[in-house]
Amino acid sequence: MTRTRSLASGLLTLSAAAALALVSAGGASAAAAPSDGKATPSIASVAVDASGAADYWTPERMQAAVPGDTLAGKALERGNRSNPLLVEKGKATTTKGTKGKPRIAQSESPVSHIGKVFFTMGTTNYVCSGNAVTSGNHSTVATAGHCVNESGAYATNFVFVPAYDNGAAPYGKWTAKALYAPTEWVSNGDMTYDTGFAVVNPDSKGELLTDVVGGSGTAFNQAYGLTYKAYGYPQASPFDGTSLWSCTGKATKDTNNPQFGTQGIPCDMTGGSSGGPWFIQTDSTTGSDGLQNSINSYGYNGSAVMYGPYWGATIQKAFNLAAAS
């Protein structure tokens, strides 16, 4: 779906030397990197009523859920800051190679801390992807901002299903008790900040999420141009949302909409993959064991590139507030 909105007059200002900030089990180091220019970032949040959410998501509702990427398109219209080429990745992009077949994305075995996110926005059921991250509360999930809030309205019936595979939910459905996102996303649909965090309830045994499934370390204020491995559960054709896929590549800045400060990697995953994690410091054998440093956010019509937001000071504050709740 193409967009006809004009470019905004203001551009996102990126500082050239922000301090490195990492939250991980093993720690890491990197050169000084840009920040997002927010001296006093503002974060919005809401407490969630989780009653009935797990039971709501029957296999039939899960299968019929609409890829949440369509909500990113609505945010773009509301924000009115995008190049007309910008679209949500709700449909497959097969400009080269065998028609109808992914040419970049690779099939993956389930990963215990990566899963599908199901939620309701208004009267429509949606599906995204997400990842459990290491946090003080052992209960935090990272996903896309458009999978948490759209036009100021928060998701309901929000559940995280780690290691989802062909209908199986080996670790159950984890219901949200609170949702967090940058105010710039909630108020303006600014793609610069398209990241959200959910804090989930303990399971029926009283156990906490990352104590059960593990979790990824996180990294903020990193250099541009790193190599990423991104994961997600694409559902729009030619995928069917039943299994995990990945893309790997070196990130380059979005030159169509430089005001977003985002980066893209070669990837032809489709709708449903949004919110899936981007990892740095990985190799071919430990791709899901790196540090999470972005999420699948949006793509362009006719281009097999997936873009993700820069995780700077504002997204870091959203994470810190969620992780400490």
UniProtKB/TrEMBL annotation:
Q: What is the lineage of its organism?
A: Bacteria, Bacillati, Actinomycetota, Actinomycetes, Micrococcales
Q: Does the keyword Repeat apply?
A: no
Record InterPro entries: Glutamyl_endopeptidase, Peptidase_S1_PA, Peptidase_S1_PA_chymotrypsin
Protein name from the UniProt record: V8-like Glu-specific endopeptidase
Q: Which residues form the signal peptide?
A: 1-30
Q: Which SUPFAM superfamilies match?
A: Trypsin-like serine proteases
Superkingdom, natural source: Bacteria
Cite the entry's keywords alphabetically. Answer: Signal
Matching Gene3D superfamilies, A to Z?
Trypsin-like serine proteases
